[in-house]
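ugh finaly. both done.
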Amino acid sequence: MYKKQGTIIAIHAIKQVNDKFKNRTFVVKTDENYPQSVQFELTQDRVDYMDNYKVGDKVDVNFVVNGREWTDPKNGEIKYFNSVVALSVVNLNQSSGSGEAGGADGDDDLPF
């Protein structure tokens, strides 16, 4: 698991991809010498995490990087996709411990 700290600069709407899958993305500008704007993805029951956040909130995001292979059925070309999946979000604007959303303790429902 990885961790990034920064300020929320965008929160997108929940997308119901199909009847079994939904996701939501948000963007954090990191607190580094060379700031990066990193888009994180929330999936399934985690999409509601961002309901209590707003643009401008300083957060700590715990995340994993997932990768997958896809073969284009039209021409057989293989492509690779990466996702930066947030597991938990902690609001650093609030007092310690009160702004946490998600499974920061490592007890999540990921299959690996």
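ok and the 2nd:
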Amino acid sequence: MRTKDIRNGSLYYNLKRNRVERVISNNFSKSRVVTECHKKDQVAVPSSYLRLASGEEVDNYLTAPPKRGILSFLFGKIARPIS
């Protein structure tokens, strides 16, 4: 994908990391953009590693993972059947 076609804030699939990432700066260099995954893990990525994320990939990215607090962890350990 060409760097000039990449838009800030849009979601792209990183072919090297096998995940969806949001572009936070497309002005890093002529061939690289800066991406992040869920507001952490910021990294400069060659634009050739990116493709536009599909609708399903976007939905999966936007679905928040379930929060796992200490009570849910403990309850899961206690409530599990012994096999």
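summary for the 2nd one i guess: The mean pLDDT is 82.
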